[in-house]
Give the backbone structure.
Amino acid sequence: MTLRFRIGAEFVLWTGYKRLLLIGMLIIMLLSSCQPFSQQDAENKNQLTVLTVEFNSGAPIANLYITVTDVQTGNVVEEAIGSEEGEAIFSKLKEGREYAVAATTLENSAANDGYTTIENFTYDTTKPYFRLQTHFTRDEQELDVPVVMQNPELPHGCEITSLTAVLNYFGINVSKLEMADNYLPKQEIRIVGNQRFGPNPNEAFAGNPRDKAHGMYVFAAPIVKAAEAAIADKQADLRVTDMRNASQEDILQLVREGIPVVTWVTLDLSKPKKRADRGWIYKGATTSQDAFMNLHAVVLTGHLGDKVVVMDPLKGYVTYNVDQFFKSYHELGEQAVAVHK
């Protein structure tokens, strides 16, 4: 059987010889001890992480066979098998060049048959992630929290964006910008001499989430206040629970009951990083507190075996190892918020 798929205005024809070549390459890839894909690798220059996700829910689809083809030449530049997190990293792309990324199952690729998702894009080194929506489905599902991305308007707005996604999940029609501008408690950071002064993150957001240069972060309590204010204004029949210091089991039980939980972790679950020169003296205090530089907030939406599924406002749907996820949660001081009926 012959498989044809369209790249721009050209058709690429895969026939007997190329089919055998593809099968051979797949066998080599499967037998080789490839290193697991790392999110930190994507931070390197000229590397692109392709995230394969389900079209309807945005949930990650694992273990798809992914190729990147040069549209102009029709040549396959790179190929990879996606990780359990639905990620594959490509490092041979050239800035400004147009490519077609295609994803299908290993079975379909070996048989040279079946459904393939194809999407064209122009490679931009300033955009290290590419979300490829497919119509392949997961065996298990989680809470269908909508994907709400914080950028470009809220470079420091992971917390309020995550809350917005949860409110949208419960049917409240509100945008991330409305939440950030009208409901999020905020206080500016002032500089006097060489010293920075600002709010306690347990009381207000330090700076403004719109401000890429000077915005910082906020913890759970002000997010609870923002949620309560929005729920009251929208006259929604919902409650908000401050889940600070909640156990792993308590949080997972909420998710099993259909309640998504805004959870504070670090970017890519790395070790918490602090800088003294970015810290500030909290209101009412006399000593400066070092600032977290990789603090992040996501929405926990599912628990599948040894994995958790989260809606990340920087990436969309992502899966993580459950132990690593909650290790990061504990290291950041166990900050979490739940909205529920």
Observations:
- Residues 3-134 form a domain with the Immunoglobulin-like fold (CATH 2.60.40.10).
